[in-house]
Specification:
Blueprint lengths: L1 E6 L3 E8 L6 E9 L6 H12 L8 E6 L2 H14 L5 E3 L20 H14 L2 E7 L2 E7 L5 E8 L1 H11 L19 H28 L6 E6 L3 H4 L8 E2 L3 H21 L17
Parallel strand pairs: 1-4, 4-5, 6-9, 9-10
Antiparallel strand pairs: 1-2, 2-3, 6-7, 7-8
Helix pairs in contact: 1-2, 3-7
GO biological process, one term: coenzyme A biosynthetic process
Pathway: Cofactor biosynthesis; coenzyme A biosynthesis; CoA from (R)-pantothenate: step 1/5
Subunit structure: Homodimer.
Length: 283
């Protein structure tokens, strides 16, 4: 079984895959809070506790972290607690098969790269990935699977926190869809502003990107992912589908790609041009 670990700014998502390629299935998944101060031992305690008896069945680990301090601890954890198991952490130098057509490839978050990989593998055409996380990102992918760039906006939760912290008369509210767009009390007004406001923001960005890149319903997709996607996507006119496990599915694909490349190199088919941890750009 492959363990995929996606460390985001707010949450750590773990997924356990059985099988490979098109036959791979998620048999379990978990979501826990990200603590930038976590040590490798604390991470291992959390992961082993969640896995329970399945911990002994892990045959591979694939991970990423958008939090630099946790990436280092994640690397230590894997090497200390699963030293004999093949593993890969997505960072500059790791082959993903996603060309980055941006000014500085090193600036692109690894989560955005693996999302692009997974989305293109799923649909095989051009499209957009909307990730509702700590930030709300909209990323464009070409027909050939190239990462073209995108847009990043503040996420829903941090916007709620910022408003509650800056406005004396307002407070944090449960983020659910209100009974109507026109709120009849302060709680409903806040809920309406966030739910329909973010839906309108995402729709506006998507329409502008699609117009700029000549994307249409016939030649492109729009897929949503991220922990807060379910709060907004029903109100988005442009989102076509929802894939809650897109990032960890991309991590599985990166792992399988690099394992296959390693096996070919060992058989002497051709030399590895980009060894893991060697080059300094994600491609």
């Amino acid at each position: 079984m492959l363990l995929a670990i996606d460390v985001g700014n707010s949450n750590i998502v773990l997924g356990l895959f059985d099988g490979t390629g098109d036959n791979a299935q998620i048999v379990a998944d978990w979501r826990v809070r990200t603590d930038p101060q976590s040590t490798a031992d604390e991470l291992a305690l959390t992961v082993r506790g969640l896995l329970g008896p399945l911990a002994g069945r892990i045959t591979g680990i694939s991970g990423l972290s958008t939090v630099p301090s946790v990436l280092r601890q994640l690397r230590i954890m894997v090497e200390r607690y699963w030293p004999e198991i093949p593993h890969i952490l997505v960072e500059p130098g790791v082959k993903t098969g996603v060309p980055l057509h941006v000014d500085n490839p090193k600036e692109v978050g690894t989560d955005r790269v693996v999302n692009a990989l997974a989305a293109h593998r799923l649909y095989g055409t051009a499209g957009l990935v909307v990730d509702f996380g700590t930030s709300t990102s909209v990323d464009a992918i070409s027909e050939r699977g190239e990462f073209l760039g995108g847009a990043i906006a503040p996420g829903i939760e941090i916007s709620v926190d910022a408003l509650a912290g800056s406005a004396a008369a307002l407070r944090k509210v449960e983020m659910v869809r209100p009974r109507s767009v026109v709120g009849k009390n302060t709680v409903e007004c806040l809920q309406s502003g966030f739910v329909y406001g973010f839906a309108g923001q995402v729709d506006g960005i998507i329409r502008r990107i699609r117009k700029e890149l000549n994307f249409t319903d016939a030649n492109s997709f729009v897929i949503a992912t991220g922990g807060l996607a379910t709060l907004v996507i029903d109100e988005c006119d442009t989102v076509m589908t929802h894939h809650p496990h897109l990032t960890i599915s991309g991590l599985r694909m990166v792992f399988e790609r690099n394992q296959a490349s390693s096996r070919r190199t060992q058989r002497g088919s051709y030399p590895s041009r980009v060894p893991i941890g060697g080059a300094r750009s994600i491609s």
